[in-house]
Design goal:
CATH superfamily of the largest domain in chain A: Type I PLP-dependent aspartate aminotransferase-like (Major domain)
Oligomer: homodimer
Order of helices and strands of chain A: HEHHHEHEHEEHEHEEEHHHEEHEEEH
Distance between the termini of chain A: 24 Å
CATH architecture of the largest domain in chain A: 3-Layer(aba) Sandwich
Number of helices of chain A: 13
Strand content of chain A: 15-25%
Strand order of the largest sheet of chain A: 2-9-8-7-6-3-4-5
Shape of chain A: globular
Mean pLDDT of chain A: 95
């Protein structure tokens, strides 16, 4: 089943209110800071319309980039200035621009296996060769990466970059251990590759995990960091950002010129004001509380309803649980039966770059209500049991 | 001089308030319907936050697509339904998506010569071969196009598509005559190519010109129409759209998935409400009045200040005048001298696909004030006179 087919099914499903869907990746709308946004837009349109409603520069509004510089350096980054930061139309655009700038046909790109589906989708247009590295509860297995690097070196081949979601990984919700983070960066220096750190979820961490962002540990300027406001303000702004060496940022800005000229200054300035007024940091604990409760409810329901032989990831944060069913189950085929029982999920295979994972599924817990989570997982448990009979 | 170099100069210039710039392509901010937008956003965030602040579908919000369907069919289009319409993040994104979907390396793409710079920029990544067709005061010279098509046919080659800004062309502001429009579509049918109609300015037409949009004359589904709210509401929304055969729309939607997932539903719904409430059509006459006055002021100043041997286009609408200086003037070199005199323009060569036009320049009249237009053109006249001495 192609990724676009799955999207079509899920879009179809989204329009059928009687189906409980664990399929999307949408935040809980009760977490949107709507009153804050309303107040900010009122001020912006009255006092800064010349800027907020006009074309902006391709690199992004200076007001937002200055706030981001403070925000990220407060996270331990050592960025020199706003020249290290560009704004993107959601972090999906950052993936596309990155691919345009970095990938030549045949280039080796390392990803976690499974990894974020829409990242490989964005990269594919530029024809890389993917190298998938397995993950466990401590994230990408760096030992396996090192073996692969050695093997490739022996063949005279080099990796262009490693793409990772180190914190609250998509689709599994696990976090890369500190040891592995250090090891990954050592390998990057030794084997001379870039590291792309996609970090949409680290502010929605609900377990006490010791971690540093890779960009905060980056001494050689090898890490290209991607952030987004989609999970901490709301996706409707379509504002993300990149923090990297200015040489890389400059290339991505040139690519962005022909892609969409600029990101909406109106939505950029909403994000800048959320940061400047300290509203973002005030707001995040609410989100964490909601997602922690929902994640726990889903884990509990899985425990109660899924039959023996099934296992699943234990997220430290983020929006997803990834489930592994017994090998003989094909979750793509099973989707039809699930839909008949009025419950939906995303089959796991498209998250793998080697066509494995046919027995896996991704479950979103951020969007459905607690009641829907309990009822939906119960229905899904029935479907799985039937499938195993 | 590369297009990106020019952009850098103009960005630099934009930050120096003492320089009068005719360089950008920005609307007059006094034309932004700020009070309407403020009122709409207040309602949207209070009543439709679940939709406005959430992820939207890749194809675009149904509310906006339905309004666009009515709006475009009121312009004489014969669109069957919303399946013919997708929303884009500004019409620049439409150009990028179109290139991704249509252009294979080596494909022949016909453009007006000169043409919209950022269109060829977007197309170039996919390595087409450009065929430039000259224009006069009646737009693209279709006779020259037909000759070219005959020549190419004799060589066994076919054109993939013709890209045109038929109404208030960028950079010249001229409009394609009705006879030529009909002839162009006849050729499209005869030689089997697509026509891309980029139409950002036709609602800002300030001379009584008889015209129909190509899409309204399209019997064979060959026209891909691109619209935008940048010049009729404001650019800061970053909302454009495409109207085409659903087979083409579907392909562009798949490409958009990996590019930015979706356009901001917040800004989409602002545009939808501007249409639904009839505010857009009420608002447009103000814009036309402002631009007409500014264009006339610039034409008058050119007449007064530019020396013999110079000529320029007479726009019927839009944002630009295109000036042709005597052959011996190199407007790229002259730019430095103009900047010393505190006035800026865009050298014309990058608008040409055959590296000609070294003696031309594009002048924007929508953004500067009337006073700046008079003073700036006087300064520029001095620079040109000096250059000719």
């Amino acid at each position: 089943m192609r990724a676009s087919t799955i999207r079509q099914i899920l879009r179809y499903v989204a329009e059928m209110p009687e189906i409980i869907s664990f399929g999307g990746g949408m935040p809980d709308p009760s977490c949107f800071p709507r009153e804050e946004i309303r107040a900010i837009v009122n001020e912006l349109v009255q006092e800064q319309a010349r800027k907020a409603l006009q074309y902006g520069t391709t690199v992004g509004c200076i007001e937002l980039r200055e706030e981001l510089l403070k925000f990220m350096n407060s996270m331990g980054f050592k960025l020199e200035g706003v020249g290290n930061i560009m704004v993107t139309s959601g972090s999906q655009q950052a993936l596309d621009l990155l691919a345009r700038v970095l990938i030549d046909p045949g280039d080796l790109v390392v990803v976690e296996n499974p990894t974020y589906l829409a990242a490989t989708l964005a990269f594919r247009l530029f024809q890389p060769r993917f190298v998938g590295i397995p993950i466990d509860h401590d994230g990408m297995i760096i030992e396996a990466l090192e073996e692969e690097l050695r093997r490739l070196e022996a063949e005279g081949r080099r990796v262009k970059f490693v793409y990772t979601v180190p914190t609250c990984q998509n689709p599994t919700g696990v976090s890369m251990s500190m040891d592995r983070r250090k090891w990954l960066l050592e390998l990057a220096n030794q084997y001379d590759f870039l590291v792309v750190e996609d970090d949409p979820y680290s502010h929605v961490l609900f377990k006490p995990v010791e971690f540093k962002r890779l960009k905060a540990m980056d001494d050689e300027g090898r890490v290209i960091y991607m952030g987004t406001f989609s999970k901490i303000i709301c996706p409707g702004l379509r504002v993300g950002w990149v923090a990297a060496e200015s040489t890389i940022v400059d290339k991505m800005v040139i690519a962005k010129q022909s892609v969409d000229l600029c990101t909406s200054p109106l939505t950029q300035l909403i994000a800048a004001e959320m940061l400047r007024r300290g509203l973002l940091l005030q707001h995040i604990p609410n989100i964490i509380k909601v997602y922690k409760t929902k994640c726990e409810a889903m884990l509990e329901s899985l425990e109660e309803n899924f039959p023996e032989g099934c296992r699943w990831s234990t997220p430290v944060g983020g929006l997803f649980i990834f489930a592994y069913l017994p090998e003989k189950v094909d979750t793509e085929k099973m989707l039809q039966k699930a839909l008949e029982r009025k419950v939906a999920y995303v089959p796991g295979r498209p998250f793998y770059v080697d066509d494995s994972g046919g027995n896996t599924m991704r479950l979103n817990y951020s969007y459905p209500t607690l009641e829907q989570i309990r009822e939906g997982i119960a229905r899904l448990g029935e479907v799985v049991k039937e499938e195993l009979r």
